[in-house]
Amino acid sequence: MIRTPLLTGRDDIVEVIRKCALPKAQRGDVIAVAETAVAVTQGRYMRPDKVKPGRTARLMARFISQKGSLSSPYAMQVVLQEHGPPRVVAAFLAGALARLLGRSGVFYRLAGPQAALIDDVTGTTPPFDKFIVLGPKDPQAVVKRIKDRSGHEAVIVDANGLGGVSVVAATENVDLKVIVSIFKSNPWGNADELTPIMLIRHQPESRK
Amino acid sequence: METVILVATGALLSGLLSVAAYVWRQGDIELVVDESSVRDAWARITGNQMTVGCVVDVRNRGRQDAFLLDVFCQPLYPGPVLEQLEILCQVRQALPEPRRDWYWQAMILGKRRSCSLEIRVKINCRTSPKLLLTKLSELVLVIHLKAVGRRQIEYSLGEVLLDLVRLSSSSQKAG
Fold first, then answer.
1. Any idea what the Cα angle at residue B98 is, between residues B93 and B103, rounded to 5°?
2. Roughly how many angstroms between the first and final C-alpha of chain B, as a whole number?
3. Partner-chain residue, chosen from B65, B150, B153, that has the shortest CB–CB distance to A48
4. What is the pLDDT of residues A121-138, one digit of tens each?
5. N or C: which end of chain B has fewer CB within 10 A?
6. What CA–CA distances, in Å, run from A164 to A63, A130, A160, B86?
7. What angle do CA B96, B102, B107 make, to 5 degrees?
8. Which pairs from A40-44 meet CB under 8 Å and 24+ separation?
9. ipTM (interface predicted TM)
10. Is the pLDDT of residue A176 over 90?
11. What backbone torsions phi and psi does residue A110 show, to the nearest 5 degrees?
12. CA distance B18 to chain A (A)
């Protein structure tokens, strides 16, 4: 687990990795980065006060369980702006229909990546606990940059502490099954641990 | 044709009514500072500084979870004596292990639940605190709550009265 300073929109995640993680990295390590950290360094966060939710966002948010980030009209409005109302509304209607037929999660799959990646207020480490934090922009390009600059395989992970793990982007040689099993317990934590980077090292089996 | 239009209009209207009923029944958040719950008040005088504190509850009487974003605390204008004072109000969640830096960390306050706020007020006065108590016997604190609800960002206010004379005399007795 790599500790970093508090990251903001003025940081570059690749530069942070170079300074904080590379001195501790060994050959063959995979660099895992929390998706929220990448999004924060891309400046993808905003105060809910700056968002003006429309009627569509207000109404749709009413039908989302409060366990989900889109239950607030502000986060829903941000997703509407990111992916466009036609797509999100269509996904909402399809999700409602699927729900009636006993299938859940359809809305999040159809509405666009930000619907699943967005963190509403209280969902992120301080001071971003008071911001809506979107998912990272072009995550595949970010992992490619990390690999080009560091020489290590890289992966961006979204882990929620409830056992939910989503690999947002990864370079080609990363074993996704291993990543998912490692992050099921969310070793990063959701408080202010400031450890958004992890070096994953293959442990050779010990001889008996 | 008329029957089709009537049926379609009826279906549309009943759909709209169902949604309206669902939203109405769902309700929203309703945050209140429980002014009667003020407890554990204390005072400490060191040099020209008087520090007072207390614990007060915030309740969510609504039917939805509240995302309690910010909680601020500031004194109600105490009169011209303010010119001689520098007042710093801090508030944090009262927990077994509270934040040491007094940062208000946004939290979810569940429906029909309450949480306790710990308030600390540092009063720096140019004159001695004992002289101050003759001019300022009590201090009213205004607590501002800002929370995200189902409909919009909601703001609520509460007031807490701290009897500085009583607190300082009881702290002297305890000391």
1. 65
2. 89
3. B153
4. 988 888 999 999 999 999
5. N
6. 21, 23, 6, 49
7. 70
8. A40/A7, A40/A8, A40/A9, A40/A11, A40/A124, A40/A128, A40/A133, A41/A7, A41/A8, A41/A9, A41/A11, A41/A12, A41/A13, A41/A16, A42/A9, A42/A13, A42/A136, A42/A137, A43/A9, A44/A133, A44/A134, A44/A135, A44/A136, A44/A137
9. 0.83
10. no
11. -90, -30
12. 13
**Comparing B94 with A186, which gets the higher pLDDT?**
B94
* Closest to B34 (Cα-Cα) out of B109, B123, B103, B84: B109
Residue with tokens 């009583």: B166
Q: Tell me if A90 sits within 8 A of A7, measured CB to CB.
A: no
Residues of A with CB under 8 A from a CB of B: 48-49, 53, 58-59, 61-62, 66, 71-74, 120-122, 126, 129-130
The amino acid present at A120, given as its one-letter code, is: D
pTM over 0.90: no
Rounded CA separation A183/A161 (Å): 9
Nearest to B26 among A62, A121, A126 (CB): A62
